[in-house]
Design brief:
This protein is of the alpha+beta class. It is 17% helix and 34% strand. Strands 1, 2, 11, 14, 15, 16 and 17 form a 7-stranded antiparallel sheet that branches. It has a 4-stranded antiparallel sheet with strand order 4-3-7-8, covered by helices on one side. A hairpin with a 4-residue loop joins strand 5 and strand 6. The two termini are 57 Å apart.
Length: 409
């Protein structure tokens, strides 16, 4: 029975229920992750340098992020715009004898009722770059189709079509004063069907791999950033003497603000050929997301609403959709590419009561409000976490023996 003897000459030191308040800081870089296992720096796990015991609170102390993000990207499914040429230019209507224009007209009439898709390059744009990009992309989308049509039916015109620069009738201009984009065509009528099913079904064949977590009623595609609503945008017809004009100054040096006029080769003997244009109803928005969220498994404290979507739930109830404890921190994007921004004191912190016994691993995720991951590419970012620790203290009772000789003095 001696093995059941629990007596000992080394009694357990009682807990005094007294603690020392200590702050411990942990620096984490995105490059610290296992890149093979977590190729995307927006979502990864890390092993901390030591066990952090009796954790009373965790807070995001400071951070630095690169502003090299793409406002427009395949991942966000906002790099394509749909348009349709509804009434192509017909040279015969204007007594123009030009075989190349005739074959181009045949191609466009054969495609009438079908929609073109123009895809812009991923990245970040200023308004003038976007206007130029859209001009070239819209014309290129039509040129690709016409080239294919000519190759199949009239290949002898292909070289001439390419030497002429392909299809070049679309013009997109940026009004600096109104901060809006204007779309025009120098010879053919067109529409921009912002309610196209292509925006709902994924415009690009690989975009389904990057579906956002939540549908977004506002930023539903490229046209929403360009100032369009979900309605069909139709054109206004302008004839000679009433061509659209920006009165504040030149769009192209020397044009006196007349940014959309027909080409001479389309006029023939009639100088009253119409042009077609439309103005985006809202101002252009090229800034992208103003915030993103940091999630840390087990430490999220922020409750978050989700983007509004038109569905059976929102149209039949007056309740809100939300996620409880969805994020650990909300971080403002304070600059535009190309730059680096720093900040500190995120505000919210995770408080444990009673203190967490031990923390050794962290799983992080950086995402936008709609659930799409933040794109950092190959650029590194860094965060500094503050751990508030309670260090238990031992009871220390002292018995003082005072010699009589000292006591008598």
């Amino acid at each position: 029975m001696s093995r059941f003897n629990v007596s000992t000459n080394h009694p357990i030191i009682p807990n005094a229920n007294e603690y020392m308040y200590e702050r411990q800081y942990v620096s984490i870089h995105s490059e610290d992750r296992n890149v093979l296992r977590f190729p995307n720096s927006a979502e990864f796990e890390v092993e901390l340098p030591q066990d952090y015991c009796n954790v009373q609170a965790v807070r995001l102390e400071s951070w630095t992020f690169p502003a090299n993000y793409n406002t427009f990207s395949l991942a966000q499914n906002n790099i394509a715009i749909v348009f349709e040429i509804t009434d192509p230019y017909n040279p015969g209507d204007w007594m123009v004898d030009n075989p190349l224009l005739a074959i181009v007209a045949d191609a466009l009439f054969a495609y009438k009722g079908q929609q073109f898709v123009a895809v812009i390059e991923e990245g970040f744009y200023n308004p003038f770059q976007m206007a130029t990009e859209l001009t070239n992309r819209l014309n290129n989308a039509v040129s690709v189709y016409i080239s294919s049509y000519i190759s199949e039916r009239e290949p002898q015109f292909l070289t001439q079509f390419n030497l002429a620069g392909g299809y070049n009738q679309f013009v997109v201009a940026y009004n600096e004063v109104g901060q809006k984009l204007w779309f025009g065509n120098k010879s053919s009528n067109f529409v921009i069907p912002n309610n196209s099913a292509l925006y709902l079904n994924s415009i690009l064949k690989d975009a389904i791999c990057f579906r956002q977590q939540y549908p977004d009623f506002l930023n539903w595609g490229l046209p929403s950033y360009l100032g369009f609503t979900r309605c069909i945008s139709t054109t206004t017809v302008a004839n000679n003497g009433s061509y659209p004009r920006f009165f504040y100054g030149d769009v192209i040096p020397g044009d006196n603000g007349f940014w959309l006029v027909p080409d001479a080769e389309h006029l023939g003997n009639n100088a009253a050929i119409p042009v077609y244009y439309l103005e985006a109803p809202n101002k252009i928005n090229l800034m992208g997301n103003a915030y993103f969220y940091m999630e840390i498994d087990g430490m999220n404290t922020i409750d978050e609403l989700i983007p509004f979507a038109v569905n059976s739930f929102t149209t039949t109830t007056n309740e809100t959709s939300s996620v409880v404890k969805s994020a650990f921190a909300k971080i403002a994007v304070t600059t535009t590419p190309i730059a680096q921004w720093f900040d500190y004191n995120a505000g919210p912190s995770k408080v444990y009561n009673p203190p967490a016994e031990r923390i050794r691993r962290l799983k992080l995720k950086l995402r936008y409000h709609d659930g799409a991951l933040v794109e950092f590419g190959k650029f590194d970012f860094s965060i500094l976490l503050e751990f508030v620790l309670f260090r238990p203290q031992q009871r220390r009772d002292y018995k003082m023996f005072v010699p009589e000789s000292i006591a008598n003095n």
